[in-house]
Write a structure and sequence with these properties.
Elements: H1 23-35, H2 45-54, H3 61-81, H4 84-102, E1 109-113, H5 120-127, H6 140-147, E2 153-161, E3 165-172, E4 177-181, E5 184-188, E6 194-196, E7 208-210, H7 214-228, H8 230-234, E8 236-242, E9 246-251, E10 256-258, H9 264-278, E11 285-289, E12 296-300, H10 308-311, E13 321-322
Parallel strand pairs: 1-3, 4-7, 7-8, 10-11, 12-13
Antiparallel strand pairs: 2-3, 4-5, 5-6, 8-9, 9-10, 11-12
Length: about 325
């Protein structure tokens, strides 16, 4: 029998060692006995799948998911490669452009700047537009490339000016010379590129060059003569490319000046000096041969009565002016 206290309040019973365990700890201890260690996590989907395979079981869910993903990838690839997605996008864009054109965004005017010799109709045809076309559907880059294929056009810029104008800025090539090859005449620019075969009679005042490969080499010779022998250049009627290696100059009086392969500047200077001293280019001659560095050879006309007036005592630095046949080597 427990004794009652004098105050009438019973004393609390003493706790044993077992009763001193906290409730949370007892709960954890019970869980430890039932589920094992708390730090051990249950396996994930991949772990369970590997465990099932190790046990000889082959679940089909991953294979089904992979097959579905593969089918979706093949379908998307076919749509993109086959152009179906692009066609659909283009169709949507075309419909949108038509709606915008109905709202006022359509091509109504075309302005061209820089055009002098380029044919107007050919330019508009190359631009590829018609009045009323949707302005947002007009490909300015493709139009620029087509315009630059025209013979006279060096470069072009095509821009759209909203709401209804297309602007084309053209830079044209400058005619440099007339080029004859195989009986055909063409106007070429300073880089030797053919511009046009039409209307060449309008450019009869330009230098006349002859021979295959001549346009590529002519600019260097003409620039040299413009800088060093401008008076002689004014007397040249044609520049003839010989064997793709050197030049003959056909003067206005029909005299041919045969230039060497190298040392052209010196040969021209010697020719001008001899002409100033002896006026050989005004004599009754057929050709002047400058191909040999130590002499100037003169070929007389067939009906020339005497050669004494051509080369009487004419001296060069390393040789003499020789009347008669041109220098050794013929017309090569």
């Amino acid at each position: 029998m427990k004794k009652a206290s004098r105050t009438g309040v019973r004393a609390a019973p003493r706790r044993t060692a077992k009763s001193k365990i906290a409730p949370g700890k007892r709960r954890n201890a019970a869980q430890t006995r039932v589920f094992g260690r708390r730090s051990q996590r249950p396996p994930g989907p991949v772990g369970r799948w590997l465990a099932e395979i190790g046990a000889g079981e082959f679940p089909m869910r991953p294979f089904t998911a992979g097959a579905g993903a593969l089918f979706a990838g093949v379908l998307l690839y076919g749509l993109f490669v086959g152009g179906h997605v692009a066609d659909g996008a283009n169709g949507v864009a075309e419909r949108a452009n038509r709606l915008l054109a109905m709202s006022g965004f359509s091509i109504q005017d075309v302005t061209v700047t820089g055009r002098v010799r380029t044919d107007k109709e050919a330019l508009l045809a190359a631009a590829g537009m018609e009045r009323g076309d949707p302005i947002f559907g007009f490909d300015t880059e493709a139009a620029r490339q087509r315009v630059e294929r025209l013979g006279w056009v060096e470069s072009a810029t095509v821009t759209r000016l909203l709401p209804d104008t297309i602007r084309i800025d053209v830079t044209e090539r400058r005619p440099f010379a007339l080029w004859q090859r195989g009986g055909m005449l063409s106007v070429i620019d300073a880089e030797g590129r053919p511009i046009t075969d039409e209307g060449v009679q309008e450019f009869a005042h330009l230098p006349f060059i002859v021979g295959f490969g001549a346009p590529r080499e002519a600019p260097a010779l003409l620039k040299l003569m413009q800088a060093e022998q401008p008076q002689l250049l004014q007397r040249v009627r044609a520049f003839v490319r010989v064997s793709g290696r050197r030049w003959n100059l056909r003067l206005e009086n029909g005299v041919d000046v045969k230039l060497p392969e190298s040392g052209v500047a010196k040969a021209l200077a010697d020719l001008v000096a001899h002409d100033a001293r002896h006026r050989i280019l005004s004599r009754d001659i057929v050709a002047v041969d400058l191909r040999l560095p130590d002499r100037v050879s003169v070929e007389l006309a067939a009906d020339a009565g005497s050669a004494q007036g051509v080369a009487a005592g004419a001296k060069s630095k390393n040789g003499i002016v020789r009347p008669g046949a041109a220098g050794v080597g013929g017309n090569t």
